[in-house]
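Backbone-to-sequence.
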């Protein structure tokens, strides 16, 4: 009888020391999929740019960057960013990405659930918003499963590598 190795899943907040790891990861995933705003050009940040960004995220009460590791390998990222202005600081913009080789394993849902739970705990965020290409049906399903509603559709909200305009859903979830 073969014994299966137990996979260790860890989710933690990104730190300044993760800057190079994050830039490399985002550059990699940008080249893997045509479903997000990142593309083969990558994140377009240096590690020192990323370190400054992470410091801003860490200092704010309405922002967070969560990293998902499997056996100490970074395979997913969830970033929630909100503006500092009083009138909109309650709206967190969600960016989530899972490395393509780990798609369809429930990791995006686990990471997003963690982000939603964090948003509830802030006492500041009252709404989460995100955009997703209409053709990305699996992601739309996960978002709806977690309580995000389609609030609108942006025609030509994205452009594919094949030169095709793509519609994008605007989705939101109230945090109560």
């Amino acid at each position: 009888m073969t014994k299966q190795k137990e996979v260790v899943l860890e989710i933690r907040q990104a730190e300044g020391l993760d800057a190079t790891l994050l830039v490399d990861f985002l550059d990699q995933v940008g080249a893997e999929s045509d479903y997000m705003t990142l593309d083969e050009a990558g994140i377009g940040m240096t590690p020192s740019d990323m370190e400054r960004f992470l410091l801003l995220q860490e200092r704010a009460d309405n922002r967070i960057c969560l990293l998902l590791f499997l056996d100490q390998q970074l395979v997913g990222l969830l970033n929630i960013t909100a503006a500092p202005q009083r009138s909109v600081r309650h709206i967190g913009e969600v960016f989530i990405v899972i490395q393509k080789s780990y798609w369809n394993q429930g990791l995006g849902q686990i990471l997003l659930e963690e982000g939603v739970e964090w948003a509830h705990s802030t006492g500041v965020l009252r709404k989460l918003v995100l955009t997703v290409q209409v053709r990305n049906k699996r992601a739309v399903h996960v978002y709806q499963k977690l309580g995000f509603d389609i609030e609108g559709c942006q025609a030509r909200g994205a452009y594919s590598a094949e030169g095709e305009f793509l519609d994008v859903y605007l989705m939101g979830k109230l945090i109560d």
